[in-house]
Write a structure and sequence with these properties.
Number of helices: 11
Strand content: 15-25%
Distance between the termini: 28 Å
Shape: globular
Strand order of the largest sheet: 1-2-3-6-7-10-11-12
Number of strands: 12
Structural class: alpha/beta
Length: about 300
């Protein structure tokens, strides 16, 4: 099934909130911390945190967003933990968004797209080698130009996966490049036009939305309305709610008049409670309660 169709089907049973999984040992409850610095204990802790977040929010959300960097910082141990965490999310029937923000020249983009979207690489002799990092959707950077995006777009369409391309990100420094005016229009608006062009009929599902979406941060609500008009068929991934200062109430501008068109990832504000002495059962309850709280604010 088309990525957007799968996403909206799950949203119809849950919420537009996506739970971000960013394992930070400095912030998580003590019960989830590694017992030592050994690779086995670090991997167990990373996977344990991922599972705890998923179990605490299960039935309340349509998808999880793994921030790859928080796993990659631990090298091959972290990558193995990420693969295991992705597998667990799929077992729990959640869509998996992998936040990797990849972007490179064509051949390298193709390799990234094979790893994350196709889920395999076919060798000249016909042998297929699988990737355990296959996700339903990934984030990518457009700043090497339109040709750097084509491999991602082609494989996303072929394998019914999704893309979220950076347009207006939630960080304060985004204005350095994204707000630059070139020939009378900001870079963000030019990117929005490009995403609309990439979202051809071939990329559009029965829902009327393309599998080619955009990252549009919650911390700049004044710019959202125009970006939404420029990308009517694109789903917005709207980071920045919570710890970065964005307000979930202002994300309504990211949605179309049909009430669709955006998902709101929330990470630290849900997964890192002030009480670090919680039991696992208590932690599950805190995560679930936080998701419910934000869901009420969104309505």
């Amino acid at each position: 099934m088309h990525f957007a169709d799968r996403l909206f089907e799950k949203i119809s049973k849950t919420t537009c909130i996506v739970l971000g999984i960013d394992p930070n040992f400095s912030l998580m409850p003590k019960i989830l911390l590694p017992q030592s610095s050994s690779p086995a204990d670090v991997k167990e802790a990373l996977v344990g945190f991922s599972k705890a977040v998923i179990d605490g929010s299960h039935g309340l959300i349509p998808a999880v967003k793994f921030q790859s960097a928080y796993y990659e910082q631990f090298g091959s141990t972290g990558i193995a933990a990420l693969a295991q965490s992705i597998a667990y999310a799929k077992e729990r029937d959640l869509l998996v968004i992998l936040d990797v923000k990849r972007g490179d020249i064509g051949a390298t983009s193709t390799a990234y797209a094979k790893a994350y979207l196709a889920g395999y690489t076919e060798l000249p002799g016909g042998l297929n080698i699988k990737s355990d990092l296959e996700a339903d959707c990934i984030t990518i950077s457009p700043f090497l130009g339109d040709d750097s995006l084509q491999s991602f777009v082609d494989l996303a369409i072929k394998h019914q996966k999704g893309l979220f391309i950076l347009v207006k990100t939630s960080n304060p420094g985004s204005k350095t490049l994204q707000d630059l005016v070139v020939n009378g229009e900001s870079v963000s608006k030019k990117l929005a036009r490009l995403i609309h062009q990439l979202g051809t009929e071939e990329s559009v599902g029965k829902s009327g939305y393309s599998c080619i979406g955009a990252v549009v941060g919650a911390t700049y609500p004044e710019e959202v309305t125009e970006l939404r008009k420029l990308m009517p068929r694109a789903i917005h991934l709207v980071p920045g709610v919570g710890a970065q200062g964005g307000k979930i109430e202002t994300t309504k501008a990211n949605f179309n008049s049909d009430g669709k068109g955006a998902i709101i990832p929330i990470s630290r504000a849900v997964t890192y409670p002030s009480d670090l002495d919680l039991s696992l059962e208590e932690y599950h309850r805190v995560v679930g309660d936080a998701v419910r709280k934000y869901n009420l604010l969104l309505k």
